[in-house]
Amino acid sequence: MSSLDQRLIAGNVPKVRKAGQVVATLDLGATKIACLIVRTTDPSQGGFELLGYGQQSSRGLKNGTVIDVEGLERSIRLAVADAERMAGQQVSSVRLAISGPSMKTQRVKANIEMDGREITQKDVMKLLNRALESGQNEKQKILHAIPFSYIVDGNDGVRDPRGMFAEDLGVVMNLVTMPDATYKNIVLCVSRAHLEVESASSGAVMSAEAVLVDDEMDNGVVCLDMGGGSTGVTVYLDGSLAFMETLQVGGNHVTSDIAQGIGTTLPAAERIKTLNGAVMATETARKEIIDAPRIGDEGRLEAAEMSRGDLVQVIEPRMEETFELISQTLSKSGLGGRLPRRVVLTGGASELPGVRDLASKILAMQARLARPVKAAQLGDDCARPTFATAAGLLTFDHTRGGDPKAAKKTPKINSEKSGETGIFGKAVEWLKENF
């Protein structure tokens, strides 16, 4: 067995959990850290039941990079402690979601000669291993390795080549990576909170997993994970990840614009945005007077007011710029005429009133605001775009890892988070039996 195969089997992958076991997820965002604790159930009952959740302001992270180890460690401890208190359970390991502009995608290709014989599972695994090896870089950590398309004798778009006959078999694979040093620093902070990292995943990919339905992934869709410090852009075609990019713009930039525009503190600006912010407003709403405390001559907050229309004039340009950057990113994705015409919005910054309409206008796409698909299991408090990433860590496991019947037919591997069930699980079992 190759060292790569051994890493795929024995590396940092979450164990398959039987019904009744406790699972914890941790979403490290720029503005908040969210933790969910669930107990697994039978897939027919939804896959999990929520036991507890915790959410804390994020400290120690900037642009997805650790700038204060102790600050991030404390934020993690507090979020997990809140969830443990509610759940009445202590956890020792977490499934981790990481976001930030340092996360990139790389497309790699590989092929093997078949000499006209039938394509077996062994051939597919050999091909995927070769593609992974071609994308190895000691300075980059591979979080996901997702086959986008198989190529049989020059014909691409094949979803599952097993059982077919071919002279040549190829694959196009998307790797989601981040700097290895950045990854190690984040894991260090989690371990200092006395937690083991079961798996590490891209926050944008996990958000998409939580909010997209299979028909959208199959027909083609753009998913925007609009967080506080960054916006994750993922594109799905034919049921697979086709493109991912992370932009260094998010809800924090809107908050900063408000703070500078009206002369107030960042916490006060965040509160104004949350309570009264909007991207677009009616004429009646624009005339409404709202509280907007400002920093006085003595450096303290003093009571003040402003019209909601003036607040919209501060917020709208930044959101327009955000969607224009997204449009430019999509135009450079290399997908050309295959770029989907539907966009799904999630993440805390997507909850500003009017965001969906502005996205539809600038991107020229049909848009919807999404919450996690498994909303019934998450309850009212957690079935919101804010918790989409943390929920995606659960959805991903149960639809592709925890429930073989729900696994997609495309043979997919994930270098950091595949359970030993589903189609990749079968491949792992085959490797164990044959080496």
Class by SSE composition = alpha+beta
- The CATH homologous superfamily of the largest domain corresponds to ATPase, nucleotide binding domain
Helix content: 25-40%
Number of helices: 14
- Cα radius of gyration in angstroms: 23 Å
Number of domains: 3
CATH topology of the largest domain: Nucleotidyltransferase, domain 5
Taking the sheet with the most strands, its summary is: 5 strands, mixed
Please state roughly what percent of the residues sit in beta strands, choosing from under 5%, 5-15%, 15-25%, 25-35%, 35-45% or over 45%.
25-35%
Oligomer: single chain
**How many β-strand stretches?**
20
Per CATH, the class of the largest domain reads Alpha Beta
Low-confidence stretches: 1-13, 397-435
Secondary-structure arrangement, i.e. CATH architecture of the largest domain: 2-Layer Sandwich
Provide the spatial order of strands within the biggest beta sheet.
3-2-1-6-11
Mean pLDDT: 85
State the shape.
Answer: globular
- N-to-C CA distance: 6 Å
Provide a descriptive summary of the structure in words:
By secondary structure, this protein is α+β, with helices and mostly antiparallel strands. The chain folds into 3 domains: 1-104 and 179-212 and 373-435, Nucleotidyltransferase, domain 5; 105-178, Dna Ligase, domain 1; 213-369, Nucleotidyltransferase, domain 5 (2-Layer Sandwich), CATH 3.30.420.40. It is built from 14 helices and 20 strands. It has helices at residues 3-10, 69-87, 121-134, 180-192, 203-211, 214-219, 251-262, 266-276, 283-286, 308-331, 355-363, 375-382, 388-401, 422-434, and strands spanning 22-28, 32-40, 48-57, 61-62, 65-66, 93-98, 104-113, 140-152, 155-158, 168-179, 196-202, 221-226, 231-237, 240-247, 289-291, 294-295, 301-302, 305-307, 342-346, 366-369. The strands form 6 sheets. It has a 5-stranded mixed beta sheet with strand order 3-2-1-6-11, with helices on both faces. A 5-stranded mixed beta sheet has the order 14-13-12-19-20, with helices on both faces. A hairpin with a 7-residue loop joins strand 2 (32-40) and strand 3 (48-57). Helix 2 packs across helix 4 (180-192). It is globular and about 80 Å long. The termini are close together.
